[in-house]
Design goal:
There is one protein chain. The chain has about 300 residues and is of the alpha+beta class. The chain is built from five helices and 16 strands. It folds into three domains: about 70 residues, Immunoglobulins (Immunoglobulin-like); about 80 residues, Sandwich (Immunoglobulin-like), CATH 2.60.40.1120; about 110 residues. About 40% of the residues lie in helices and about 35% in strands.
Length: about 300
Amino acid sequence: MNACVPVVILLLSAGSGRELPQQVEENGSLYIKTSPPGAQVIFDGDVLPKRTPMTIEGVPEGEHKVQFILGELKVNCRIGVVADVFKDVFLDLKRPAGRLKVVTDPLEVNVFLDNKAVGKTPLILNNVSFGRHMLKMRKQGFKNLEVEVIVDSPDQTRIGVHLDAVERTMKEGLIKGHEAHVADNAGSKKGRVSFMDVLPWIVLSAGGAMAATGVGFEVYAAKAADAAKRERDKYKASMSAPVIVEHYDNAEHNRKIARTNEITGSVLMGVGAAVIAGGVAWLILGTGDGPPVEACIGPGLGVLVLRGSF
């Protein structure tokens, strides 16, 4: 029993002399360039001896706080470092900007950056100025969402959001869906003319042409009727001779035709004026957001509702 004790002590001593493996720190490198150059750099609170442009090696992986100082210019930002990667960083100190990536669930959400339409998700926005910005999300059938985002890095800032679906009655869904469709396509409609936009002008042109034709008809018919009346009156005094009677009958027939044409011209003028009035009313009342006349069914009554604005 006593012979075994020294052996045990020797084994314990040998085990205690082993060194544990050290954790290897993963580092990356940065090449920092600014405009204008010559900016002082404070990296994670440490003032670096060199000024931009500069190379920094052995930077631990992760996100770092960096401040650039050039005269009265002071720009604070974040810079991410990836292990074993040499990364170029450029920053315009007078107009610092970064990139903003917006992803949503669901997709195809309309995005407004500071009330300006910028596209549908997923999207990447370049040259977004440093500072606070308001993102608005709009999609038919989902609740509107507003998100405030801070851009403070020349790297890409990622924003991921989820929109909740909206439960509506059928009537509310039709109304809200139409409003959302109009809002979503307000920007894309600029500079684009649809057939419904041109149709009122076609109606106006047709009415004008019809009224002009009626005026021409009436003027010509009035002259023809007057000439036929004078010819008829010329032969009216000598009705005894057969030839004179035939001329009189022809003149009277021509006068009746001219009178009919005169009435036709008046009708064309009236219809043309009515068509022009309808076209003008269409232009005034039509909102461009949908058909100016829509059918509405009441209890036991079918009516037409004229939609528009004054």
